[in-house]
Amino acid sequence: MDKSLKQLQLISILIHWMPNAILIGIAGAFVGGFIGSLLGLGTVTGFNIGSFLLAIGGALLLLVLYRVIKKK
Fold first, then answer.
1. All residues at 6 or more sequence positions from 15 whose CB lies less than 8 Å from its CB, including other chains
2. What sections of 1-72 are H helices per DSSP?
């Protein structure tokens, strides 16, 4: 396969996939902060390691849920 064709296919895949992942990641950060507050893990008080980990956890949770729902 031609190198430029492979590059175009990769760009096409990224353009299709990235907006969903970005939006789910942002929403996941909010979900992570909310769940963390409910569980008493702390609140999001700015950019620190605790807030960062809560945001990552929430984003991962939403991405997993998205993939489960999308498979059905």
1. none
2. 3-38, 49-71
Rg (CA), the chain: 16
Residuewise pLDDT in 10s, the chain (72 residues) = 567 777 778 777 777 767 777 888 888 888 888 888 888 877 777 788 888 888 888 888 888 888 888 787
pTM for this one?
0.65
Spatial separation of the C-alpha atoms in residues 25 and 37, rounded to whole Å: 18
Distance CA 49, CA 3 (A): 41
Separation of alpha carbons 16 and 43, rounded Å: 34
